[in-house]
Description:
This protein is of the alpha/beta class. It has helices at residues 21-31, 42-53, 69-80, 110-131, 157-177, 203-213, 222-233, and strands at 9-13, 35-40, 58-63, 88-91, 139-145, 182-189, 244-247.
Amino acid sequence: MHKLLEGKLALVSGIANKWSLAYAIAQAFSREGAALVLTYLGERQREAIEELSRELCTAAILPCDVTRDEELAALTDSLRGLNRPLGAVVHSLAFANKEDLARPFLETGRAGFLLAQEVSAYSLVSMARAVAPVMTDGGSLSTLTYVGSTRVVANYNVMGVAKAALEAAMRYLASELGPRGIRVNAISAGPVKTASARAIKDFSSILDTVESRAPLRRNTDPAEVADAAVFLASDLARGVTGNILFVDAGMQLMGF
């Protein structure tokens, strides 16, 4: 099969740099023929996204701070201005204060807890509300999660709780958006060396554990996550919604 996303307009949010899972997904989408809308946070990040976009099939680069309702409303208007339906969306947004990933979960402050929830979980709801009006032919909305949502992972702390909320939000959105032909799913990726992952204390030990214990005896390749995202965005996944697709070398099935 070739050009699985030919003719589709796809929005990818959450690219921070060339090591981001979102960037790997954008590369795979571009390879498969999608025209991309990339979002950025603030003018400083815009330059980086513009640089990365030169290697992609990019239709537009738009600002989107998911904590600002006015920017989400502007995103809807800008997408309408492209005069074509949006067929796929990738939500790859998460944030928690570094100190909340380094101290016991019990010590998480109210502000840090709410910040992680807003950026990492509620943003899926707010983004879905912003993009649904331009997904007039239906399509796919995918988000990224991690097994720390259902299992205790050392030092994942407040982010694990946020990912649990993200997964619940994904299921409710799948139910509500299904009648519009919009499928909502999550990819649970294995640990990958990204900028956000490096904020987790002793992250390298997690990689070592996965490599020694996962059924495939290796860590996750970002390209594997990207190809899974292509599948979910394509017509091959037309009957798939409300699901979590694990791309983690099988680590999620292992016990003690």
